[in-house]
């Protein structure tokens, strides 16, 4: 298996891993988008109705007919209330993918992050390895099927109507709309399809012959890796980032938001709100009377290892060679 050496994260610097993760996510997103054009009768009926126009719309944006513009939406607490990965984990636990003691470990990592407010590399590595071991040996198709069920069980009723309306404004203008998340690319793609969006950029994990190997392609699509994914997709799609928009609730996504000409802070955390005000970025807050729950990055980064994308990884490897 020497051919898989290029996938081994520890052999590359953090910057190189971010680039690799971003390129793999862009490759997987474009492949999945082609698949989205195929009919999915079992899920298309679940697509939500088109929401009303966003409150406080920008009169001159998005520009109708500007096909070199697109919109990139973070998922957790931006499009969806809470963490998609948490809900996905609930679904896997319900289906006995892991035991109660492993659930307790994930809960501890989440609690530690919420109390400390910072990322601990050792905690992140521990959770990541745990999540990889959970899905190792399972088929990609199995996780895709389960993901459809989990969306209906835990996610469908947690979409922020305001953010969904912002995304619809871009679609109505004839532009593509992408989710960008550390969640598994398969899970993110399911959510994008259910919402009628173009597609999704998500964490890609290695699989061989349709079976997860327990290795990531690069690293979780988080922070700088998201920016690399958006940059790679924009290059492949012929987009002008200065005419594109990006939406997020987290200061961790400042690299992605800084790439585009129209950054939006949605339900922002304290650091992002401060950053956005200093740079006169647009803000939207759809939370009602309470602060949205913090999303633990260590847990998100760990469960993000559930993503697949074998074809994208192979294609990327061939191109690099």
Describe this structure in words.
This protein has 321 residues and is α/β, with parallel strands linked by helices. The chain is 48% helix and 13% strand. It is built from 13 helices and eight strands. It has a six-stranded parallel β-sheet, sandwiched between helices. A two-stranded antiparallel ribbon has the order 4-5. The protein is globular, with a radius of gyration of 18 Å. The protein starts with 13 loop residues before the first helix and ends with a helix.
Measured distance between first and last alpha carbons: 16 Å
Average predicted confidence as pLDDT: 75
Number of strand segments: 8
The poorly predicted ranges are: 1-14, 39-54, 113-121, 289-321
Q: How many distinct helices?
A: 13
Q: Which range best describes the helical content: under 10%, 10-25%, 25-40%, 40-55%, 55-70% or over 70%?
A: 40-55%
């Amino acid at each position: 298996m020497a051919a898989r050496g290029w996938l081994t994260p520890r052999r590359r610097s953090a910057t190189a891993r971010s680039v690799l993760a971003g390129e793999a996510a862009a490759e997987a997103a474009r492949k999945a988008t082609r698949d989205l054009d195929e009919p999915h009768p079992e899920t298309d009926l679940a697509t939500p109705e088109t929401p009303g126009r966003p409150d406080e719309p920008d009169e001159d944006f998005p520009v109708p007919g500007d096909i070199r513009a697109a919109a990139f939406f973070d998922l957790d607490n931006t499009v969806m209330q809470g963490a998609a990965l948490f809900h996905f984990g609930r679904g896997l636990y319900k289906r006995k993918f892991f035991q109660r003691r492993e659930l307790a470990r994930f809960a501890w990592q989440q609690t530690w992050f919420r109390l400390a407010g910072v990322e601990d590399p050792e905690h992140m590595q521990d959770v990541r390895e745990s999540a990889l071991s959970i899905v190792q040996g399972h088929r990609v198709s199995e996780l895709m099927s389960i993901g459809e069920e989990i969306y209906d069980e835990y996610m469908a009723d947690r979409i922020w109507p305001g953010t969904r309306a912002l995304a619809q404004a871009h679609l109505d203008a004839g532009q593509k709309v992408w989710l960008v998340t550390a969640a598994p690319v398969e899970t993110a793609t399911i959510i994008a399809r259910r919402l009628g969006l173009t597609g999704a950029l998500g964490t890609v994990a290695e699989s061989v012959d349709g079976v997860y190997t327990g290795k990531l392609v690069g690293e979780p699509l988080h922070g700088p890796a998201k920016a690399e994914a958006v940059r790679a997709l924009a290059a492949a799609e012929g987009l002008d980032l200065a005419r594109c928009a990006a939406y997020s609730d987290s200061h961790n996504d400042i690299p992605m938001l800084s790439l585009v000409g129209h950054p939006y802070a949605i339900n922002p955390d304290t650091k992002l709100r401060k950053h956005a005000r200093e740079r006169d970025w647009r803000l939207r807050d759809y939370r009602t009377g309470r602060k949205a729950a913090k999303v633990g990055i260590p847990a998100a980064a760990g469960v993000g290892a559930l993503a697949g994308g074998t074809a994208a990884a192979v294609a990327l490897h061939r191109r690099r060679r």
